[in-house]
Amino acid sequence: MKIFIANWKLHPLKFKDASALCAKISGIKTKNKVVLCPPLPYLPLLKTKFELGAQNISAEKEGAFTGEVSAAMLKQFKVKYAIIGHSERRELGETDFEINKKIAQALENKIVPVLCVGFGIQKDEAEEEVLGHLKRQLQEDLQGIDPKKVLVAYEPVWAIGTGKPATPEHAERVAMFIRIQFKVSKILYGGSSNAENFREFLERQIDGLLVGGASLDPKQFGEMIQSK
Ligand code: PGA
Description:
Bound molecules: 2-phosphoglycolic acid
Shape: globular
Helix content: 25-40%
Strand order of the largest sheet: 1-2-3-4-5-6-7-8
C-alpha cells in the first residue's frame, strides 16, 4: 500500500469545482491510502471516502492569534492529516521552531503530521550537502517528537511545480538516509510527480507521493492512486 497526498494548494477557485474534483477522485477504487488536502473552507463541505488533510495548522491551540486555525478545531471536521512546513510556507517565513510546535499540536490532537523538508536546497548542490541541510532541518523540526508518528515528505524546493522532478535514485537515497537517521514512520517524495513519472518513484524505497499540480487533474491523479 502506497500513500498519496493531494495538495490542492490555493485551488480550485470555486467550491463547485472542488466538489466535482472530489467526487471524481472519490469514485476511484484503490487499496492505496489517499488523503485530500483542499483549501480550508472546503474541508467540512467535501464528501469523500478518502481521508482529509489540512495544508497547514496553527502552532497554537487557542487564543489571540488572528487568522489562525488550530489542530483542535480541525479534528472536529474529520481532518486526519496536516501538511506542515511546506516550502511555500517556509518561504513566507515559517521557522523550524514554529514547525516543531505545529507537529506537537497535530499529534496532541491525533492528526498525522506530514512534515515537508527540502526548503533551501539548491539543484546543483552536492548530495552530501543536501543531506546535511536536511539533517539540520529534521533535528529542529522533530525535537521532542516521536518520529514514528510522523510522515516525512522530501520535497526539494527546486522540483516543486517546475515540471523537473528529482531523479528517483536521488529521492530514494535521501529517503533511506532519513529513515535510518530519524526512524520516521514513512517517507514520501514530492515535486513534479505526475502520471508519467510516478511509477519510477514507487518502485523504490519510497512510501508514497505528495502531489501538487497533478492532483488537480482527476484523470492523472486517478491513474496514480490506482497503482498496485
Ligand atoms: P507539485 O507540488 O507536485 O505541483 O510539484 C508538490 C507540492 O508542493 O507538494
